[in-house]
Amino acid sequence: MEPVTLSTERMILRPVGPQDADEVYAACQDPDIQRWTTVPSPYLREHAVSFTETFGPGGWRDDSDYTFAVRLRDTSEGEAGTREGALVAMAGVMRRGEGVAELGFWATKEHRGRGYMTEASLAAARWAFESAGVERLEWRAEVGNAASRAVAEKTGFTMEGTLRAALVHGGTRRDCWVGGLLPGDLGLPTTRAYLPSRG
């Protein structure tokens, strides 16, 4: 997949790269990110370097994982906001099967509670449906991660249940919530017919 950059009203989503390493390292010192996501704990600088230089670019190259560095538009000089500002979040679309992908994300501590993550998630979801051949987008989070669930619900995901022992975190299997988002949920056309069950 050719790397792409997406824009929203307040942010720029572009493929993660080596220039993001310092801010990723700083953000991932947050105990909440280490508690609720699969980032290593403790999170070392080498983890940030590997993520930004190898994992992120590699996912785009092999068409398996599309990770975006989500940054504020820099309007400090009164421009139209095309320059990058502070790192707000990471958002990734990971392929899981034929036409199915999973949306994952984390937000920096200082930028939570302002709707940035929902705005970025909607942009990533629309891109996945319109440009990456995704027909069903899933979201998963460990049971109890209410902040992630709130973002997923605001993005339009339908909560579909709890999967037992479906996540591994800290060497322990844990239950997770799962949600699904279809193109039609965002008012987009689907590429393949869908026949929902009647019961």
Beta-strand percentage? 25-35%
For the largest beta sheet, what order do the strands appear in spatially? 1-2-3-4-5-6-8-7
| Head-to-tail CA distance between termini | 38 Å
The ordered H/E elements are EEHHHEEEHEHEE
Structural class: alpha+beta
Give the count of helical stretches. 5
Specify Rg, calculated over alpha carbons: 17 Å
Report mean pLDDT, rounded to a whole number: 94
Biggest sheet layout: 8 strands, mixed
Work out the helicity level: 25-40%
| SS elements, strand count | 8
Low-confidence stretches: none
* Shape summary: globular
Question: How is this structure best described in words?
Answer:
This protein is an alpha+beta fold. Helix content is 28%, strand content 35%. The chain contains 5 helices and 8 strands; from the N terminus they run E-E-H-H-H-E-E-E-H-E-H-E-E. The protein has helices at 21-27, 31-36, 45-61, 116-131, 146-155, and strands at 6-7, 11-15, 65-74, 83-97, 100-107, 136-142, 158-169, 172-181. The protein has an 8-stranded mixed sheet, with helices on both faces. A hairpin with a 3-residue loop joins strand 1 (6-7) and strand 2 (11-15). The protein is globular and about 50 Å long. The mean pLDDT is 94.
List the helices and strands and how they pair.
Blueprint: E1 6-7, E2 11-15, H1 21-27, H2 31-36, H3 45-61, E3 65-74, E4 83-97, E5 100-107, H4 116-131, E6 136-142, H5 146-155, E7 158-169, E8 172-181
Parallel strand pairs: 5-6
Antiparallel strand pairs: 1-2, 2-3, 3-4, 4-5, 6-8, 7-8
